[in-house]
Amino acid sequence: MPDILSHPLLPFIVGGILVLLLVLVSRSRILRGLFSVALWSFMGFLLWWVIQTGAVFDPALERLGSIAGRPAQSVVGDELRVPMAADGHFWVDVSINGTKRRMMVDSGATVTAVPVETAQIAGLDTQANPVPVLIRTANGTVPAQSTRADELRLGNIVARDLGVIVSPAFGNTHVLGMNFLSRLESWRVEGRTMILRPHHPQPTETV
User: Fold this and answer.
1) How many angstroms separate the CA atoms of 165 and 176, rounded?
2) What average pLDDT does range 102-129 have in this prediction?
3) Half-sphere exposure in the Cβ direction for 130 (13 Å, CA)
4) pLDDT tens digits, residue range 104-116?
5) Which of 13, 26, 55, 135 is 20 to 30 A removed from 46 (C-alpha atoms)?
């Protein structure tokens, strides 16, 4: 069961309820005006929060997420720095065989995973290994196909001939797993930033 008391919106919800009660028992136009300003401000914040946490799952919100200034990765020296998103995960802009996607970096995932649609667009050959593999997920064990990406690029990092698993069960989820992270010279998390250092930094391309 979710811990409601730790929800990030709880202080705003409680504050809004208190302000609403104050306005209801008051006939002051000033208070009503202040409440209108506070309400519109809260709605703006709520829209921003939804975009920040939802755009990574819903492609329809992807463009809105960029406009709202969602944290973006950046190359600093030989390192790729990835700020933590509002949902607590690290998301990176990736090119898989030239196909641009946004992926979640997950050190708990053994292998990089993409949905079927992305595999088809990126030209990943899922028929090379016709025998499916079984993947354990939060929703149980699901069948998947194993294949390899010729090139996966993000920032100044390029991974070639990278193992990838594909399954309809992944929905729209894209995960960058340990088989990618293990190819790096090092990776670490400092505060709210993930730092990836490749063995051989490549020229940065816009993804």
Assistant:
1) 11
2) 92
3) 0
4) 999 999 999 999 9
5) 26
Residue 197 tokens read as 């250092």
Q: Please determine, for residue 63, whether its predicted confidence score (pLDDT) is greater than 80.
A: no
Dist CA 108 CA 165 (whole Å): 15
Q: Which residue has the tokens 């008051």?
A: 26
DSSP states along 167-180: -GGGTT--EE-HHH
Q: Tell whether domain 71-197 is in CATH 1.10.3810.10.
A: no
- Please provide the DSSP assignment of 16-80 as one string: HHHHHHHHHT---HHHHHHHHHHHHHHHHHHHHHHHHHHTTT-GGGHHHHHHTT----EEETTEE
Task: Write the pLDDT tens digit of every residue in 136-149.
Answer: 776 778 889 999 99
| CA pair distance 139, 157, nearest whole angstrom | 32
- Distance of alpha carbon 63 from alpha carbon 68, whole angstroms: 9
* Overall size of the chain counted in residues: 207
Residues 6+ apart with CB under 8 A from 32: 23, 26
The DSSP output letter for 84 is B
Q: Where are the domains of the chain?
A: 4-63, 71-197
Q: What is the SS3 assignment for 107?
A: coil
CA–CA separation, 37 vs 102, rounded Å? 35
Query: What are the residues facing 49 on neighbouring strands?
Result: none
- State the Cα–Cα distance between residues 188 and 95, nearest whole angstrom: 22
Q: How many CB atoms lie within 10 A of CB 135?
A: 19
